[in-house]
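hi!! sorry for the late reply, been swamped w classes. u asked for the two structures so here they r. pasted raw, havent cleaned anything up. first the sequence of the first protein and right below it the tokens
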Amino acid sequence: MSVFYLARRPFRFLRALRSLQWQLAVSYAAMAALLCAVMGFVIMQDLRHDLLQQDIADTGRRAATAADLLYRESGTSLPAALAEASRLAEARVCALNAQGTTLACSVAGLDVPAQTSPMPAIDDQVSPIERQIGPVAAPTANQRTRWALVQVDEPLTDRNATEQRVQNALIQLSLILMAVAAGMGLLLGLGLTAPLRALTDAARRLGSGNLNARAPQDGDDEIGELGVGFNRMAAQLQDSFATLESERDTLRTFIADMSHELRTPITALRTFNDLLSQGAVADEDVRDEFINESALQIERLEWLAQNLLDLSRFDAGLAEVHVQRIDLRPLVQRVTDEAKLSAERKGVDLELDTPSIPVFAHADAARMQQAFSNVLLNAIKFTPTDGHIGVTVRREGKSTMIHVADTGPGIPPDELPHIFERFYRGPSTATSVGGSGLGLPIVRSIMHAHQGEVEVTSEVGAGTEVVLSLPAA
């Protein structure tokens, strides 16, 4: 295992070099190296030019000094004069005749044998531009026969050493600057990649199912804005999943409730069918009662199917609502008249109060009749004998209102928020009255399709009021 790990380490190192942090460090070091190279080239060119000009001036001065000495020491032997001139000039001094033939040279007091031919290159380390030749001032005829010119050469040793020292200093400075630039690149890369790594880690945790994962949002720069955007997306995703879970739970409850609602009529129909088919019921009155009860159960199944279909259409936005300008008074009057028979059978007083002038609204007459009918039948169902139900139609501001107020038992405060949920029947009424729990959800869907609202206020022991509001025409 250790050998395999060591074998993988170079690949990990190469992979790390491809990271943003190392790319910044290498880029900064490369820019520093390029800048140092350009600056070093410029500095070395200027230094060489300045040293060369300085050497030219200095060598000219030495040549003039040597020529002046040789002129003043014209009576002295040539080697002795050259040795003295070399000492004063601190360089090699040569005497040449008029034809350019070197007669003798001396360096720091050391005599050099005379040359019988024109002098070749004096030194490999001496360039021709460094050779300064000065004429001996006002030579006599005898002197011209001895020498006419002096030559002073200065080696490149000092200048080369100076250039080498400056070059070494520039190289060291370049290495230091490259190291500093690489360090700054690493620090800057660390500052940039740390939040990116945190964002990547948050995205990885979010992808693995942790919907609470959030990225740090420090700073107001682009990375901070990216973190804010990521957290906003994560929050929306979490809300979406919560909504999906809620809808899934609602769907499960809906299916369970629908199965329960369908089981009762189906069981009753199966029982009636078995009894009738087996001839177990000989009494015609009982048989007729079974048939009538079967018809009621079939009607109930049809009602459930139609209401479920309506709810699904409203939820999907497929329900057709033909809105037009209508007077609500005839619609409310018709539904109230149809419901009066049921109210009278139960001993409930049903009273309608409508204005003498039309109450116009933008609505679908058939859908509004369905919604109002559900509300009114609900009120009759929950209002006890000798109770009262009042229906009022009026215009209030920019809305038209249909009020249905009863003197029933009322709805407890803890049940009131749930009355528009499908198949919901509160514990206080589930056993006392029937119902499927679909009436009010359908009413709310119809009102929302009309850009209207349904509001319910209730007080236990005092009754309930339902208000249907529509945009006025």
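now the second protein. again sequence first, tokens right under
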Amino acid sequence: MSSPEPPLTQRREGIVGVVEALAFDAIIDARSPAEFAEDHLPGAINLPVLDDDERARIGTLHKQVSAFEAKKAGAALVSRNIARHLEQALADKPRNYRPLVYCWRGGNRSGAFTTVLRAIGWGACQMEGGYKAFRRHVIGELAVLAERFDFHVICGPTGVGKSRFLKALGQCGAQVLDLEELAAHMGSVLGAYPDRPQPAQKLFETRVWHTLRGFDPGKPVFVESESRKIGNLHTPEHLLAHMRAAQCVNLSADIPVRVALLKQEYAHFLADAETLNRQLDCLAPLLGRERVDAWKQQALAGRWDELVGDLLVHHYDPAYGRSLDRNYSRAESGPVLQLAAPDPESVLDLAKRFLSGHA
């Protein structure tokens, strides 16, 4: 668990701890854009007092010249950047604006910004310990949150519509932890999202933590049977352990239904066989060059149903069977739900019928 925070009365005026900071509606991250991109408090906006290049220049000046020269040059840059934010991003904020400001350690960057905002008359507060304190809080909370919930794991081989089924459960009001959506990856070797990259590991963990903290512990949480890695990201260890010990529900569909679903999900590959073939090359060490070359020819010829069916039978299904036996031992005793068709209405109807029997 995260370490307890000192009472508010023991802090200087305008300084708040992590738990209090999370209650703010307006949050300003004063760090550089690169720091912000790696991870940030949910809902924060990035108003850097030093951009990436400026931060690097001041750091170099500190090391090579002196702390005094670095502070003097940094103060000029910080002042100009804060002035710009006041004239642009903050220009329309009302008199009762009360933002939370943080930086890396809760030091000079957020301190300077908060001082100016409070001098104007806004009730700005600075987060004690900065992002580092928030990160410690998230790590500690992830372990605690994982133990609070009754997870129900949706199992099933590639192409049975697990992600769609999860979304349909969410539409019906169920609590859903969609790890693939949070990780921007569908989990398989071809699973990278075409329209957005994966977040950094820290930001992924923050997204998981933020989702879980919004759930009711008295209701089940539905999640997909993910492996240790989702693309390049790692599923949080405590969460994964509780998922693997949870009761399971098995989703099933006939091969034609699965082929139709996968063709919809991977439509970007159908329009670019060359890119698909480069991805297929990574399967050669596992399945042999001859088989992979045959699949690449199917892709170039546009024989998509044949290709997707072969991939399911010869790669995805055997891999799924091995992984399920190793990681989700309770799947064997779980109920089986049959998806009859690949259209959204069929998925939603299955979700409704499942929840009506599950309540």
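hope this helps!! also noticed smth abt the second:
The chain has two domains: 8-137, 149-358.
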